[in-house]
């Protein structure tokens, strides 16, 4: 049984657990409100580990990781030009918690920050304990500088897209596509029976919706203010498809252009028979512009100055093997990757129970694997401890961020 003591306060484990679990009820309050709640200095002790929290707002004095890891946060936070951080890895390892805590930390360090989820199974709302659904930018209350969150729901968007094409006889499709930054595709596909196409969507359409939002970051005024953009990406497979999508679209556009040219020459032939002129702007030219946009995105993802992919993993053989493959694929795609976060490491303990002793041995073996892995060993390893409460809401994310990102 855990006990919590403080020079000023003595509280029980269950009190503290429910207190931390209830952070989200207060997430609409200003930070200063929290200091009233958090003005205590508890020391948490369990049979199998210890974690000291000695400052307000859960900033941690001594970090309960096996070794102090330096993440190079100074480098991540320096400079006011825009930087993109994409966090990805196997399902359930803590990508969202790490991405959200990094976004909070950036915002608390003066960066107007946007955190975006491209995972169809979003958990950003759960992590921030705030409703972030709806596909629009939602302000997150709490940090010192503006923090906005955006959950892109590609499946929902595709549904909306499909029903628009059915109910509006195609005209709604154009509006919707315009909204998604894909208006040019709608223009060009209009004559190719888009509704039918969506009943059997081509592979990668979900990611196309997500990536079109990324294109908007580059072009729209609305997103200009953000100097840090953190992506909470979908599990490994999706992420790799997202990264290779510009190539996929590049190839698809090539096919569409050819198809379009065939249609145009066929209709021109018919029109010339009836004496009508072809007045539409050159389709191939428009598509070529879209292709250029995609190339811009592809370059951005590979720009070592502005972009970094951070692999998140846990100390298990399965997760590390998958991370190693992810790292190899990222390197093959020339995506900059410098850091690996190893999350959920057991905090140190002087008296482990049998279960924790076994688990610790297992984790030590897995950490050793990273050190000798041909792909992962060259990365900066960031060790993040397993904490004994669920990380939900801005104060809790700030707490995690201060432990992980140093
Ligand atoms: N260091 C940690 N200590 C304790 N719990 C953690 C830690 N990191 C993450 N968790 C918990 O693990 C669960 C999964 O975390 P999270 O949602 O961040 O993972 P994910 O990789 O984004 O998952 P998914 O692949 O499903 O999107 C959550 O309940 C979260 O609170």
TrEMBL record:
Domain ArsA/GET3 Anion-transporting ATPase-like: 83-403
GO molecular function: ATP binding; hydrolase activity
Keyword Nucleotide-binding appears in the UniProt entry: yes
CDD domains: ArsA (cd02035)
Alphabetized Pfam families for the sequence: ArsA_ATPase (PF02374)
Family note: Belongs to the arsA ATPase family.
Catalysed reactions, semicolon-separated: ATP + H2O = ADP + phosphate + H(+)
Stated name of the protein: ArsA/GET3 Anion-transporting ATPase-like domain-containing protein
InterPro entries documented for this protein: ArsA/GET3_ATPase-like, ATPase_ArsA/GET3, P-loop_NTPase
Keywords: ATP-binding, Hydrolase, Nucleotide-binding, Transit peptide
Gene3D superfamilies: P-loop containing nucleotide triphosphate hydrolases (3.40.50.300)
